[in-house]
Amino acid sequence: MTHPLWIGTSFKMNKTRAESVAYATRLRSALGDGVPGVRAFVIPPATALAEVSAVLDGSPVRTGVQNAHWADGGAWTGELSVPQAADAGARIVEIGHSERRAHFAETDGTVRLKVGAVLRHGLTPLVCCGESAEVFERGGSVGHVLRQAEAAFADLADGLERALIAYEPVWAIGEHGREPRPEEVAPVHEALAAEWGGRVGGILYGGSVSPDNAAGLLGVPGVGGLFVGRAAWEVEGYLRILEAGRRHAGARA
């Protein structure tokens, strides 16, 4: 079975409520009935989630949240629960981004707890996996990423078909990330597709994605979509990447 392509963006800690709403309004107008063969999504800052979700309600664009706690409620100061995220309109929960792992003590264990909570509440977990430059340079990328994915979904089955995996090599993401060559990310995507392609809803690539390289990355075996950063923070850039997705989806139909 051929899954639809998932192509989305996270704003990270950027954009005010007004800026996020303006983006969503422009995007909804530009997309109309959607992009054939593509599922679009936007993950704004939590401060703007409810308003962006309201703008995009009834449109083909899903909204998400950048993080959520595994508990449904309680004394977790500063955290956001999955039910609260859903109440604000989120249908996707990003989990395990390398910045969360590096700076906020996110572990394979807490990723697993969060995935379980998201699935339990009927939302879509978007699980980020990726290796450092050091792991990449010594040829350990495939094993490292497969271990992260296995830990994230350990002993989970119900709803797993809703889950998404985003392979985001740490050396390729962020302002100072290096644009990868397709052949550099192909081994990991081929391994993820072989292990998880029949069980999860999609396997995305993220890291230095741009309108110029989107088509080439979508052509890598095992890539089922794109998770985009700064190149999609302006609507026009996101639309160009979505157009690359439409062409790719049409060619494989």
Describe the structure.
By secondary structure, the protein is of the alpha/beta class. The chain has a single domain (5-66, 79-252), classed as Alpha-Beta Barrel (TIM Barrel). The chain has ten helices and eight strands. The protein has helices spanning 17-31, 49-56, 82-87, 98-103, 108-120, 133-137, 141-152, 182-196, 214-218, 235-252, and strands at residues 5-10, 38-43, 61-65, 92-95, 124-129, 164-167, 202-206, 225-228. It has an eight-stranded parallel beta barrel, surrounded by five helices. Helix 8 (182-196) links the parallel strand 6 and strand 7. Helix 7 packs parallel to helix 8. The longest helix is centred in the C-terminal third of the chain and has 18 residues, at 235-252. It is globular. The model has no long low-confidence stretch (mean pLDDT 96). Homodimer. InterPro entries: Aldolase_TIM, TIM_sf, Triosephosphate_isomerase. This is Triosephosphate isomerase. Keywords: Cytoplasm, Gluconeogenesis, Glycolysis, Isomerase. It holds the Pfam family TIM.
